[in-house]
Amino acid sequence: YDPFDKVHNNLQWTDGNNFSWGAKDTVKMFDGKLLVAGGPRYDWFSSRTDNDLTGVSGKTNVGHTWTYNYGAVLKPFTKNYSLFYGHSETYNPNFGAQPDGTAFPSQVGLVNEVGLKMAFFENRIAGTISTYKLEQNHILLNDPDPVRATQGWRIDSGQNTTKGQELDVFFQVTRDLLMSVGGGAMKYKTTTGIDPRGAPTRTANATIRYKFSEGPLKGFGVGGSYRWQDKVVIGYPLLATTSTIANYDLSKPYYGPSEE
C-alpha cells in the first residue's frame, strides 16, 4: 500500500458565466405610515462542463429568468409598533454537470415573511418577532453512495420547505451597556426524505457589550456572546445489501450533539 499513490476518480472542467441586473424603488404613503418597496431582477447564465476522465464533452447550458422582491412596512397606530411583510425570490445557477454530461437545473427559491417590530423608551428596548416560509428547489446534494459521490454524481433535492419563527430583543441598559437575546425554531420538509445535514431545529443566542465612554479606557469595549443549537443530522446507517451500490436507511438518521 502506497499512501502517495493517487487514483483519479473525477476530473471536470467547468466554464461558467453569470449576468444579473435589478432595480428597486420605495414609496411612502399616508404620512409615512405605509412604506412599500420592491423591484425586479433579471439573471442570465451559461455553463459548459467537460469531463477529462470519462471523455464526455459537455454541451453549453444557457438559462435566464426574472425574479421579484417586494415588501411593505405598516405603522397603523403609534411609532412604537410596525408590521412588516416581505417576499423574496432567488435564482442561482448550478454550474457543473454529472459525469455523463447531464447539466444541473438551476436552484430557485422564495421566502415569505411577516412579523412585528416594537420599540419602547426611546428605542432603549426593541424587539422583532416573525414567522416565515422558505421554499428551495434543485439544491444539489452528494450522492448517498460515497463511491458515486467521489466520482462527481449529485442528486436533486427536489423541493425543500422550511417553516420557522424567530424572536430577537435588544436592551440598552445604560449608555454604555448593551444586551440582546434571540432564538428560533424551524421545521424542515424534503421530497427526497433526506433531512438537511447540519440544520438545527432550535437555536438560541445572547450577547453583551460594554463600551467605556470615559476614563483611561475611553473608546475601548468588552463583550461576550453565547450561542446554542439543537442536535443536527450528521449521517445515515448503511443497510445490509448484496448490491454493489450502497443503500442507506434514511428513516434513522444519525444525530450529532447539541452545540454551545
What's the structural blueprint in terms of helices and strands?
Elements: E1 12-22, E2 25-29, E3 34-51, E4 56-57, E5 61-74, E6 81-92, E7 107-120, E8 125-137, E9 140-142, H1 146-150, E10 154-156, E11 159-172, E12 177-190, E13 202-211, E14 221-229, E15 233-235, E16 254-255
Antiparallel strand pairs: 1-3, 2-3, 3-4, 3-5, 5-6, 6-7, 7-8, 8-11, 9-10, 11-12, 12-13, 13-14, 15-16
How many beta-strand elements? 16
Query: H/E element string?
Result: EEEEEEEEEHEEEEEEE
Structural class: mainly beta
- The tally of helices reads 1
**What's the alpha carbon Rg, rounded to whole Å?**
24 Å
- Poorly predicted tracts of residues: none
How would you state the average pLDDT, rounded?
Answer: 85
- For the termini, the CA-CA separation is 41 Å
Q: Give the fraction of residues assigned to helices.
A: under 10%
| Envelope shape | globular
Assess the beta-strand content as a share of residues. over 45%
Describe the structure in your own words.
It is a single chain. The chain is mainly beta and about 260 residues long. The chain has 1 helix and 16 strands. It has one helix at about 145-150, and strands at about 10-20, 25-30, 35-50, 55, 60-75, 80-90, 105-120, 125-135, 140, 155, 160-170, 175-190, 200-210, 220-230, 235, 255. The strands form 3 sheets. Strands 1, 2, 3, 4, 5, 6, 7, 8, 11, 12, 13 and 14 form a 12-stranded antiparallel beta sheet that branches.
Brief overview:
This protein is mostly beta strands. It contains one helix and 16 strands.
